[in-house]
Specification:
Length: 367
């Protein structure tokens, strides 16, 4: 058994010891050359994973901070404009709430838990908007991988619909629980904001978040007066161009990121994506054999599997047993607590580790 409880929850995830150790390096000042060198190296690695040649903003916050940043920088306060917020679970609902709490006109497009946001529904919403004769949505917000339901939305197909019907609408994508484990081609898809957190498929401790931001999104931000301060994309980009950050960054976490990016380059991003697909296949096969998948057919996530608790097992008892074996998984989220449970298969997990966890659950089920 391992010397600690290994996390198979969808964030924070298990972080390798070498990454944890990288945080213990001596401090450097963030206004000096060594920091610039570190930041520049990190940019190279991040751009590979985001599939972009342009900037990836680095924020000392969890992903929620960049949710707020996207809301404030990419949508004006004009009540006639606003955002089309697609909602397919608790996290996408929270992002919609973030837009509302920042005073942005928010149109909700909601599908039931377990279902994906479809291109057809987005088409309908955009057509209804056009038929109403109002200005187009300033932005559409989509959570790529809904962590509460284990659903991955068909991003490329939705992007195609938005580009066809509403080309001026910015496309804002939350890939908090998928980026780094699943390929999302920022430049190829022509996205405007693609954001993620450190504590999921990147396999880092919590505390950092990253966002690729298009020139178009920055141009939009320049037209918005009240962008806030800490998550002002223009300011973050201005400093980023000088390999720096507007305020004091979490230097220890950046050291961990630097180390992890080097390891990801050794593994190779395509291999990393293939490993995530393999882990997902192992987990889904087990889930279908013992329970059922919560996600509708064809949309199950490659980073987290949400399992319908068809046998009515006590998830608390399961986790208590797993703790004795050195593992921890997640109960269902919000209203799905008890009805579902979730197993994360992201970051640096290997197929052997995945099988060992599932074997431990099998032992609990056999009791
Ligand atoms: C899909 C999704 N978006 C956003 C968030 C919020 O991110 P953070 O906890 O890093 O603020 C989460 C957290 O689990 C998430 O799963």
């Amino acid at each position: 058994m391992s010397d600690h409880v290994k996390l198979f929850i969808p964030g924070p995830v298990e972080v390798r010891k070498s990454i944890l150790d990288a945080q213990a390096a001596w401090m450097i000042g963030h206004r000096g050359k060594p920091f610039e060198t570190l930041y520049a190296r990190i940019q190279v690695g991040l751009r590979e994973i985001f599939f972009t040649k342009s900037r990836v903003l680095v924020s000392t916050s969890s992903g929620t901070g960049l949710w707020e940043g996207a809301a404030r920088n990419c949508v004006s306060d004009d009540p006639a404009g606003g955002v089309l917020a697609t909602v397919c679970g608790d996290f996408s609902e929270r992002w919609a709430d973030v837009f509302e709490r920042n005073g942005k006109a928010t149109t909700w497009l909601t599908v039931p838990h377990g279902h994906a946001v479809t291109p057809a529904l987005v088409r309908e919403a955009l057509q209804a908007r056009a038929a109403a004769g109002t200005v187009p949505f300033e932005a559409i917000a989509l959570v790529h991988n809904e962590t509460s339901t284990g659903v991955t939305n068909p991003l490329a197909e939705i992007v195609a619909v938005v580009r066809e019907l509403s080309p001026e609408t910015l496309i804002l994508v939350d890939a908090v629980s998928s980026l780094g484990g699943v390929k999302i081609d920022f430049d190829g898809l022509g996205l405007d904001v693609l954001l993620t957190s450190s504590q999921k498929a990147f396999g880092l401790p919590p505390g950092l978040s990253f966002a690729a931001v298009s020139d178009r999104a920055l141009a939009k931000a320049a037209t918005i007066k009240n962008r806030g301060y800490y998550f002002d994309f223009i300011e973050l980009d201005k400093f980023g161009q000088k390999n720096n950050t507007p305020s004091t960054p979490a230097i220890s976490l950046l050291n961990a990121l630097d180390r992890q990016l080097a390891d990801i380059a050794i593994e190779g991003v395509e291999n990393r994506f293939a490993r995530h697909a393999q882990l997902a296949a192992i987990t889904r096969e087990w889930a279908q054999r013992n329970f059922a998948l919560f996600a509708e057919d064809g949309f199950a996530s490659d980073t987290v599997t949400c399992i319908s608790n068809t046998r009515g097992i006590d998830i608390g008892k399961l986790n208590a047993y797993l703790a004795t074996q050195g593992y921890h998984i997640s109960d269902g989220y919000g209203t799905l607590k008890g009805k579902t449970f979730r197993i994360a298969h992201m970051a640096d997990t290997t197929a052997d580790e995945m099988r060992a966890l599932l074997a431990a659950i099998d032992r609990f089920l056999a009791q």
